[in-house]
Structures are given as structure tokens and as C-alpha cells.
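Re: your question from the hallway

Yes, I did run it. Sequences:
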Amino acid sequence: MTDYNQDEFLICAVARLLDGVSHVAVGNASPVPGSAALMMREVTQGALRVSMIAGDANNPFTDGGRELFDCAGQGRIEAFFLGGAQIDGQANLNLVGTGEYPHVTKRFPGSFGSAYMYFVVPKVILFRPEHTRRVFVPKVDFISAPGTSAPGVYRPGGPYALVTELCIMMFDKNKKRFTLVSVHPGRTVEEVRDNTGFEFDAPKKVPVTRKPEPERLQLLRAKIGREIAKTYPEFAKRVFGAAV
Amino acid sequence: MTDYNQDEFLICAVARLLDGVSHVAVGNASPVPGSAALMMREVTQGALRVSMIAGDANNPFTDGGRELFDCAGQGRIEAFFLGGAQIDGQANLNLVGTGEYPHVTKRFPGSFGSAYMYFVVPKVILFRPEHTRRVFVPKVDFISAPGTSAPGVYRPGGPYALVTELCIMMFDKNKKRFTLVSVHPGRTVEEVRDNTGFEFDAPKKVPVTRKPEPERLQLLRAKIGREIAKTYPEFAKRVFGAAV
Amino acid sequence: MAFFKDPDALVQDVPNGALLVLPPDYSLVPMAAVRALVRKRITDLHLLFTPIGGLAGDILIGAGCVKTLEAAALSLGEAGPAPRFSDAAQSGAIAIKDSTCPAIHSALQASEKGVPFMPLRGVIGSDVLANRPDWKVIDDPFDPEGGPILLLPAIKPDVALFHAPLADSEGNVWIGKRRELVTMAHASKETLVTVERIQRPSLLDDPTMAAGTLPAMYVSGIAEAKGGCWPLGLPGHYTANLNAIREYALQAKTQAGFDAWLQRNVIDDQGQMAQQQ
Amino acid sequence: MAFFKDPDALVQDVPNGALLVLPPDYSLVPMAAVRALVRKRITDLHLLFTPIGGLAGDILIGAGCVKTLEAAALSLGEAGPAPRFSDAAQSGAIAIKDSTCPAIHSALQASEKGVPFMPLRGVIGSDVLANRPDWKVIDDPFDPEGGPILLLPAIKPDVALFHAPLADSEGNVWIGKRRELVTMAHASKETLVTVERIQRPSLLDDPTMAAGTLPAMYVSGIAEAKGGCWPLGLPGHYTANLNAIREYALQAKTQAGFDAWLQRNVIDDQGQMAQQQ
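Structure:
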């Protein structure tokens, strides 16, 4: 039980960020956040409500594609996950393209609901495993969703934390900066700095991200693998293998 | 077949106003307009679409109470029926109360959807059997829905005709006045004037409203009575009696 | 989401002064729960109908539970005018925010969508608008001529209350095509529901039922109440008892008659009225 | 409402230059009808997704049918980026109106409700907004501080096109819980639907089915197309064929590869592709 793979590690890291949350929604193509959410639902004995958008399993929505956004606008969704082809130090997200829009050099799928969810969901967790200077840039080429807003703009929501393959950062809305709070086992602060294109704060001594809790790892393999397989069968097979 | 009752007469009078209409909606508590609409659907072999709001029969709406209004706002409803505790010569409707609002001397149920439907449905037929100076007043005490609007106000809809126990009037939007177009058999223009509190236009010689067409009367009794009974059983029993 | 033993327990925590939203008489009216509200002697309600009221509204007004009423209309339908409402309007005993059907639908949709207002066509030039200082008319920013358009502020009820045919043990509620109930629940802080029955299997597991299901995340409390719409009807289950409603309309013509009716049918009844169906 | 013999007949009158709205890949995508549009060599489409596009969009773009695209995103999901879309965006071959999911839902709801615009929270400060000269930000008239709020103009598509499991002989269409299709139909001038099958009894006569039914008054044309979503899935009927989609993603990496794929799977296919499921 002390052995774990990268996905299991990240699932447990994300799960801790959901501590105390009452309702988390999980968007499309989010197997790791989805597994973390389903695990925390189990850990909290259902005190955490999980609403998956993808597929029919654990998907409570019955009012069409708009319901996720309406629900978030009503203030009923406390946590959500976003990513970004580029993310900068002010937590601006680019999901559209690099280069000078509209003349993009590399086009990505598009902003999805980020330009809205980032404003209305209190705890948006940025999940972006690839930790490189290609992703974490000084300034995004296109702001799909801004990390912060001017005073007077309605904004109950925004960035909460960032989880990558190297570390966890938390976002400070007042300072408009990320703070490195832990580096994953075997990684170093230097490695994080080398691979991050923006400045961030860090304590003098940066803790190591906790390894997966054994009882959670067990739960994950025994039960959550089967549950996430309903939405992401290939992911479940790859990560939890024979256990599913 | 030359004998007919008052309701049958009014049904046939209203039905003629639906000539050429493609979609009529029928609100609550409207058995005579509803019968006229269902009869015309039969006469036109379904070219007239009839959407009833009351009950489940002939009620196609599945998107909740708002759908009637959304549908009208989309321009999909060509004709609708309204009434009024008071109606004045500019076709203003009062469904709220007499006296100085909010200190009403006599309170009526309320404006329902009139303040909206009157603006967006091209042919609103005012159906108000009681033809008295109590109803047809010089000026309504409360405007639930105005008969006309200032230039610049979005208004594809408005009053089309008025059917009472005495006569039929058509409304002229430009002149903002009613014109008497026919008096019912046995009634006179003087009787209409005596019982109308507002001025209206009239041709020198006012025609008599056509009696029910025999083939329509037959259709009504043979088939429409049964159909309207699904929505208004007591009305159908009273008007079409044993035939239903 | 919690299950309660009966309608009285379900509504016990609805506070005096709450903004309460109820369905129209053609929908799923929670009559048993409304009688429970009267029995708990709730007061100062701000009562909203989506968008027109009937028997439930007249009873709450007659019983002195209502401070303000917002509706597009209130009547007993085929049984005629609503006597306690008419009296209260004429005496000024309650404050009335006269509205029009789509304005209420849109104002609830504004809360559903988390926006501060919704535009609506029509209404301009009416005395409905003239008496609503909370509504605003602006020049349409998308109209080159700048024609006027009405904006309605969002309405966010404290409590939505309705009856439904079926719930499941997860708290999902089947409302069929009565989607004004979905919007009411989305727009409200709390939603309380009485149901004919509660089944174990999840409504969401059946794609046919899921299409007409309000998910549990919008539902605060559920209580079983067989005949919960009675004497109004529940399509597919029971029809309205027109005689009972006409009897009410007759009795309630005077406050004394209403009071006697209330004592007999609501206060003494202790929730048993519905069983008479 | 008219019935057509197949998807090719159904779409025959969709004009070049139409504003066409399609569902997202998680809904009921009319792949058979999209192939029929390609076969009729439609051009200059203004293509809108409610709110994100996938395979259907990439094929229409690759086949040169699209002039402008409005969507919150376009990708092949698990099969990766949409290659023809990416190329067209990078080369500037199509004009793209980048949006965000709730903006498209709201703009369609504006048409559904017959209002000229709808407000939306968020979006302010984004480059999505900066690149949408058709959107307006006003001071919220209901906010005492006058904070800014976004207004989205109504979008009224010429044609909505989707696939559904079931229709009836009156032209009612069962869409289940996929209510974005209802809003698409309400908002559009014409709605064309392919279905797995057509039944005689009215869907509206069954209260359970009625809850998930789009009434015939919004439907212009229906054609039967078994496997009409294929190679995408139709929940409860067939799952997506991921291999076929991955094969497409691979072939379509170049325009030449796409052209060959199109010739083989769409042009030569004459509507038979779906039968392979």
C-alpha cells in the first residue's frame, strides 16, 4: 500500500483541497478531479455532493446543458476544476490559442465555460499536470478567463489552488499571486522555479506534499476505480488496472 | 338545424374571425373561444393549429407555464383571446379593479398575461359577451393592457376584433377606434350605442351578423362538443347537451 | 435534504415573513402543506404565485397569514372570484404587487440564471408597470432606435413549496412537464415538497423518468402526503373536487363564514382533510 | 411539419449561408444529417454549437461548408483536438466567434423568450469579451453601485438540426433530458430532426413521455435515420465508436487525408455509414 502511481498521487492531492466543500461539480475530460471528488464523497459519507457533467453516472443534471451554469450562478456549486493551455502568475487562463489572436499560431479547443465559472464558483481548482514554461507563462496570449477582477465587478468566485505534477500552489486574491505551498515527493523548489515562467511566493521552507493516505489509496482502488469507470472506463482501466 | 343557442351562435361568430389563421392559443376559462378554435381546426382540416392552455387535452405545452408566453414572444401564435372587466374605446383592458387603484372598490382577479400577450400576438380577439356600459366604459379605471402604444414601442400584436352578445366590432390601430361591423340577428345599432360607454365608428348601414352556418352547427354538435368536453365538461353538457 | 413525517413537520421551520412561492392552480398545488402552514399560524408571508393563484392563496389570505401578495391574478377558476382575496384587496388588508404572467416567470428565471434582471417585451404603457416602482424601463442598447424595454429584477424566494406525484429515496422529485416547478426550485433558497409516494430506485437511473425529474440538490425537504393537492386535482391521480371548492367559495364570502370553514376543515382537521378524497 | 424519406431529403432545402445550430457532442448529434449536408455540398454556413462542437463541426469545416463558427470550444473529446478546426483557425480559413458556454445558452434563451438580449455574469475582463464587438457591457441599472454587466444579443438560428430517439406521427419528438435541444428549437426559425423511429401513438398522451417531448409546433421536418448519431453515441441505444473517431482524428490531420476520408465515408457512402454500427 505504500506504492502508488502518479494519478493516484494527484487524486489524493486534489482530494485534500475539497476538504469542507459541500458541492463540487466536475466538467468534461476530468478523470483525476472526478476520482478525487468521488473519493471525498465516500470519505465524508456523502456530505460532499458530486455532480459530474460527463456521461450519465453521477450526473444529476436534467435541465440541459445550461443547468451546470445556472446552478453555479445560483451559488450552489462551491468547487470546480479548470485547466489551461497557458496559465500566468495572475491566474489568467488561456484555453484558446498562442500567438496574436485571432491569428493564432497554435489553436486550442476554446474557452468552454471558464469565462463564467471562474467568476461564480468560490473555489476553482486549477488542475494542470504538465508543469513547464510552455504552460506556466509570464503572461497568457489570450485571456479566456481572468484570474482577478477590478473592484465593482461581480465576482464571488475565482482561483483557489493549482495542482501540477511538481507541486501545489494556492492563489491569493489580494496579492494576485500564487504561493507555493508544497512540492511533491522527490521534487524541489528549484525544479518548480525552473519550470515556471512567472514569479510566485514561497515560504522559506517549502513542505513536501503528503503521500497518499493508505486508507484512501485502498478506498480508491477498492471502490472509486469502479465508480469512475462508469464515466472514464479507459482511465480506470489504465490507473486502477485489474482492481476495476 | 336552423335553431341554435346563444353559445353556438357566438362560437360560429368567433370562428369566422379565425379564418386564415395558422395558430391560435386558447387561455383559461375560454369554452366559447376554445370551441370556435377546435371547430375551425376541423373545418381547415388541421391547417389551423389549436393550443389549449387549460387541462391536458389539445394542450401541447411541455415547458411549464412560461411556454405559452415564450411561444408568443417567438411569433409563433397568431391569434389569442382576451376579455376585460372593463374595456374602453381605445381597446384598453382592465382586469384588475374599479375605483382608484390600489384602493379598488371592486377587485377582479388580475391582469393574467394580458399585459404581454396583447403586445406580441397579432390578432387578439376580445371576447366579452356582456355588452353593458358597466363593461364598455369611456375610460378604464386601470390599464392592465393598453390597446395601442406610442411609436418606438415594440408591438407586433394588439386588438383585432371584439365579440359581444350584441355585435362584432373591429379595431383600427391607426384611428385607435373600434368600428361596428355587424349586429347580431334581432339586435339594433341603437341597442349597441345605448349599451356602449365609448364612441365607435359604424357604416351607414350596419350588416347583420351571419347566423351559424348549418354545416358548422352540425359539426359543432356532432364532433366539437365531444372535443371541448375534454377541457370544459360542464360547458359541453350545458351547451351541447345530449349530443355529447 | 431531509425527509419529514408529514406536511406539518415539513413546514415547521418556514419562518414568519418568508417570501414563499407557490405554483398555479393548473400545476401541483401543495394544499395539505398550505393547511399545515395555516395550522402553525404563520404570519406576514410575502406570497408569490408562479404566476397565478387560487384556493391556496385565498385560504392563506383569509387566515391572516399574508402581508403582501405578488401574482398575475388570483381566482378560484370555475368556482368564481376568490372571496378572501377580493375582500382583502378592497379593504387594503394586504399589499398587492400586481404583475403579469411572463413577468413572474422571467423574474424567477433571473434568479435561476444568477443574473440581476431579465428583459421582457410588452407591459409598457400599462398601469401594471406604473404601479411597480421596482421595475425599470431602459432604452434597448441593441436597438438602433433605442426603443424602450422593461427590465424585471430577479425574485429569489426564501421557500418554494409544491406537491408532486413521486420522489425517490435520494430526494429527487418527479414533476413531469410542470417545469415552472423546476424554475421555482432553482430560483429559491429552500424547496419543500409533499409527494404522493416515495420509491427506492433513483428516478435519475430511468432516462424516461429523469426527463421530468427535479434533482435532489435543489430539494431541502420532502414529506409524504397522499392526496396532497386535494381538493384540487393531481393529473393522473385524482381530479379536483369542484363541489368542495364551490362550497368553500360560498362559505368564504364572509370572513365569519371563512373562519368557520377554516376551523372545521383545517384547524380541527389536523391534516386529515386529504384522506377524504 | 413534414416527414422526409431520409436525411438527404430532410436537409435538401437548407440554404447556403444559413445560420445552423447543432447540439454538443454529449447530446444528440445528427451525424447522418451532417453527412447529408456535406453531400449536398452546402457552403457558407454560419455554424453555431450549443455550446461546444465536436466531430460534426470538424467534418463540416474540413469539407469547406463553413464560413463562420460560433462556439465555446470545438474538440474531439477523448480523441483529442479537432484537426480541421485547428488548421482552419490557424490559417484563418474560417472566421471564429469565440464564446463561452453560458453565453450561447443565454443568447438562445433570449430568442426563446422573444427578448432582444440577456444579461450574463462573469466574462468581463476576458479576451472573449474583448473580441466580441456584438456584445455590450452596461452599468447594471439595479445595482446601487452600478457595477458592470454583460448583455448578449439574442441569437435566432435559421435552422436547428439534431437527432432524437423517437418521434410520433403528429411530429412530436422525444428528447428526454436533453433540454438544450428544446431551447435550440424554440429559438430557431426551422427545426429539422432525424430519429431512430417514429411511433403512431402521440407522445403527449403519455404523461411520462410528455415530460421529455418537444411539441410538433416547433418541428419543421422529420426523417427516420437509424443510427443517426453514429459514430457518436445515442444513450440507451448505442455507444460511440471511439475507434472510428480516433481513425478520423488520425486521417484528418492533413487536408489530403481528410479529403480521402470524406470521399470514402461520406461522399461514396450515400448515407449507408450509419448502418455499419
